[in-house]
Amino acid sequence: MGVARSAARSAVVSGAPKGPVAVLAGFPLLRRSEHEVVIVKPADLPSEMSADRDDRSVVARLRKALPGCEVELPHRLDRPTRGLLVAALSRDAIARHNEHVRARRWRKFYLARVAAGASLVGEHRAYLRRRGRLSTVVRSGGDPSHLEVLAEAPAPQWPGQRHLLIRLDTGRYHQIRVMCAELGFPLTGDEAYGGRPGSFYLEHALLELIDLDRNEPARVFWADDPQREAISADLASALASIAASG
Fold it and tell me: What residues contact residue 183 under an 8 Å CB cut-off, 6+ apart?
């Protein structure tokens, strides 16, 4: 059973009432303040590029749509990953968001799809080191990395596969991808990390960031995202519960 859909697409943004979702630079806009915007990045679009003369990245498109703002990213999503992406709009905002990210005051929740098999529910730790465009697990000398698989369920539209609901506690390069692979269950379609051929799915589905005016948590979640893969009723309920908690 997929996520329940209402007649009108709606967003749950920092506890705000549900309503139509706005669009900015072609992206669904879930939160906007004087300090930042939170948009939904589609899969296969880079968050940022060192040379982007054709506006092929999210940052380039946002800078074009927000003249006068100093658009910078306090975090990034891999090119094949879709979901919530925050863009700060001033030097002060990027500095404060960066500070909160370093202090682990943000909470990030992801959906991923892997082959069916042994349960991965629980906490997982590793040391990661980036090597070029890939990341590897090392015994020592790497960056401490931690995530927790909160729940898992069969993927309704993908026989023999399942969805994982993951809380990402550290934001290392390719962290979810490399750690799932190390556990023996690489993401489907993630051939860089040993995944079997198929459709890749990794989504940053729910974010708790710090409201810069109130200095308190604010959750961003789009329950009715039409581009989200159909997930089980149990996982949809778990996500909604996290979004409503607090």
Answer: 120, 124
